[in-house]
Amino acid sequence: DAKTTQPPSMDCAEGRAANLPCNHSTISGNEYVYWYRQIHSQGPQYIIHGLKNNETNEMASLIITEDRKSSTLILPHATLRDTAVYYCIASGKNFGNEKLTFGTGTRLTIIP
Amino acid sequence: DSGVTQTPKHLITATGQRVTLRCSPRSGDLSVYWYQQSLDQGLQFLIQYYNGEERAKGNILERFSAQQFPDLHSELNLSSLELGDSALYFCASSVRALAPGYNEQFFGPGTRLTVL
Half-sphere exposure of residue A22, counting CA atoms within 13 Å on the CB side? Predict the structure, then answer.
């Protein structure tokens, strides 16, 4: 799995868009970018994933640069419940190789 | 609620002891994963089972072992416990999806193990 680099912490005002960056400059062509989050000490929760196109679901948007060396997770209207540690993972997902390698993540704090 | 259940929620034991953590995956999920989260090591993958067979191994100590039973529930056995084994142990499950790259794992609430 490619190494990912994320800022250790970020703040965002409630109601504003939270933009969480992730650097994965050594990502290979068959590796996907996954985002998970962990609220307090709960089990991590899947948010979104992508390969090279931008992706959007009901939780967030994922913007991947054209060279795929970095990406940004966007929470469009952050709420207090979005306060969590966000993990960016770059992984080649094959049957029999679905383990997730979590880094240190970004601790996002939503400010009222 | 992810649909993955883990028991017990908390476990306090002494060094040298052996414990068993149990996980029931979501209905229909064939893959089960175990992760350990400690303060100094973060979230680490331990082992994966698929339909009863070991599929992948991570940083799992020899004192630890796991298995997945025919009803798909899984158990993680930790023996000769040391102070450093104190951690949150998460189980996750997933279905083998056909969509490219899809790797959504559903995590249970975890078992907090304290070794005194």
Answer: 32
